[in-house]
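Chain particulars:
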Amino acid sequence: MSLSKSLSSVPARLTLLALFSATTFYCLYKSRRLRYLKLSSNPNPNPKPKPKIIFLSETGTCKTLALRLHRLLASNGVAFDVVDSRHYEPEDLPKETLLLFVASTWQDGAPPAASRFFATWLAEAAADFRAGSLLLSSCRVAVFGVGSRAYGESFNAVAKGLATHLRALGAKEVVPLCEGDVDGGDLDEVFDRWCEKVVAVLKGGGVAECDDDDSGGAVESVYSSSEEESDVESEIVDLEDIAGKAPSRRKTVANGEESNGKLNGRKEMVTPVIRANLEKQVYNFE
């Protein structure tokens, strides 16, 4: 009885209230403190992806050109990664904001064997109405092709296909498609002129005009001055020199062979990329 009277007294109630308030305050403080520490250690949980130079190479020519472009951009204070297309996961394309391609065309207009998965995935996505023109709407691209005129109509077919498919998926060309001829003797000169346009556009030097051999129209600069400053701060890293750091290739296997988006020989009806794009289109209609 005395205990009940004690608890029912005013001082006891005040003591319990004070204890409860202090406990609540302490819990809120710890929660805010942990959140602050988490944000401090990772201030940007969804960082802007670093621009990339992706090459499709059979004999190493396109790889050499891609590395040359990488050095030129680095000397101009523009940071890029260099990636072999065979190590790149195509379903990561919607995350990208700026991509430069150096692509070779092999016999009969085919892509390099190691890059066939990438080229096929892009072609099928562009032909699939479910993907639509919003899939790469946030991405800026430029394509340089390496081929031989000796193959006639299939000259630089891979580079032309890449440019067409990228545009179909909503990507915007910052520099028009340029085609180099390995048998013409001026491949290096043509590539250097294309590189100069790329550097000029990335550094905000105006617009990239088309040459007579280029396709497309004049293209406006990609970066404003503030964007340029933020993009050149990160250190340049060549992904080819970082073992295990390249994006993992998610693929299915049917009958012991790599299949392009297929399971047990059947093409998947809705891939994760297509599903995400369909959801985006639904939101735009609402």
Notes: The chain has eight helices and nine strands. Residues 11 and 206 are 77 Å apart (CA to CA).
